[in-house]
Amino acid sequence: MSQGVSNTLSLRNQRWTVLGAARSGLAAAELLAARGADVFVSDRAPEETMAEQKRVLEKLGIACEFGRHSEKVFECDAMVISPGIPSDAPVVRAAVAKGLSVISELELASRFCAAPIIAVTGTNGKTTTTVLIGELLRRVHDDVIVAGNIGLPFAKAVMRAPNAGYAVLEVSSFQLDHVETFHPHIAVITNITPDHLGRYGMDFDRYLASKQRICTNQGREDFVVFNADDEATLEAVGRCVEPATIGFSSSRVLTEGAFIRGDQLVLKVREREYEIVHRADLHVPGRHNVENVLAAATAAFLAGVPVGDIQQGCAAFRGVPHRMENVRTIDGVDYVNDSKATNVASVVVALESYARPIILIAGGEDKGSSYEPMRPLVKEKVKAMIVLGEAAPRIADAFQDVTRIVRVKDLGEAVRTARSLAVHGDVVLLSPACASFDMFDNFEHRGDVFREEVRALQPQKVEA
């Protein structure tokens, strides 16, 4: 079974640079320092905006600079870059040209993780699948790491639980761009659709290749769990030579893998079938969440979780914050926080989940993807679209001929406008199709603000 190099590996007498002082950068710097490395952290953000990060680094005795990447960043044996720094950034290209090893925080932390790793990637569904796998594993293991792109940096988790029984990680394409030895025992690919294409020169093949790196170092004892309904995922998995592959499908019965028969979620492995959960017993709505449950159940089974625990865990699962999260029902109107829907494909599956009229709140930092896949569903289901942020003009142009468009300046105005337009039986859905960074720190911040604004609304009659 795959595992990291060592949870006690020493880096004494080694010099490391960390680019970026956000969560993953700070965690990487702390792990490096704890293992004896001489660490230097550099972030281009102005020093006045990084007071807390500077305080943390100074407390750890780690040298740092802000407002620039000076020549000092190259005075090292190796470099860790944060996910927000593109591979083609001048400082990264210069480091590679100088022969420096440039790795991600994911790669770094994996070298100190002795536990077997389950890694989940894909365009959509990563967080829900990761959290559910973690919950299923915790039914049989006392100490399970759930970390990565989900919010808790892997490096921080490794320091907190050096002797964990399993590590379940959500991993992004940005993190996979700079792996060398990262080796999950079980890799899960939920789907691959166009996203973050600006980061990849609008080249979908580059994005696909990035996702495929999750299984580059896997061997014959390892597994890839994949979406058998997704053509791009099939292409990526087709490049895997060593690991065993097992699919899941929400549209057809498979000879082996996880699928739906009638309304029953079924897992068939090594010619044995197991009924996992009835669709009506799931507490998470939508076809996409059925796929997430199928993927998680398969990964948990391969990791040795008994079928009975998988059945109970799937039936008990209530979803994750910011993904199809029903915040409140006011005057017969459901207010749903889907802030995690930062791309078009996520919004499509959210819209597919409702048969009721929808007032859609969308917009934020534009990713350059086409909004065309949303048009049929918007025309069919969305009675009004409230748009905000940097992408508002482009979204308005894309949908002004199929639904009513209302432009607003911020999320508070969006919620209040939605309230004025909604009637009993409607759904007010925050599903932005965009990144959050034009107005918020991250999608969690955006979702938290949405919750606050919804909770501030006063019902006109007794709440449901």
Task: Please characterize this protein's 3D structure.
- With 464 residues, the protein is an alpha/beta fold.
- The chain has three domains: 15-99, Rossmann fold; 107-316, Mur-like, catalytic domain (UDP-N-acetylmuramoyl-L-alanine:D-glutamate ligase); 325-455, Protein-Tyrosine Phosphatase, Chain A.
- Helix content is 32%, strand content 22%.
- The protein is built from 16 helices and 20 strands.
- The chain has helices at 23-34, 51-60, 90-97, 105-110, 126-137, 154-160, 173-176, 204-212, 231-238, 287-302, 307-316, 344-352, 375-381, 392-399, 411-421, 443-455, and strands spanning 15-19, 38-43, 63-66, 78-81, 101-104, 117-121, 144-148, 166-170, 186-189, 223-227, 244-248, 257-261, 264-269, 272-278, 325-330, 333-337, 358-363, 382-388, 404-407, 427-430.
- The strands form three sheets. A nine-stranded mixed beta sheet has the order 7-8-6-9-10-11-12-13-14, sandwiched between helices.
- Helix 13 links the parallel strand 17 (358-363) and strand 18 (382-388).
- Helix 5 (126-137) crosses helix 10, helix 8 (204-212) crosses helix 9 (231-238) and helix 15 (411-421) packs across helix 16.
- The longest helix is centred in the middle third of the chain and has 16 residues, at 287-302.
- It is globular and about 65 Å long.
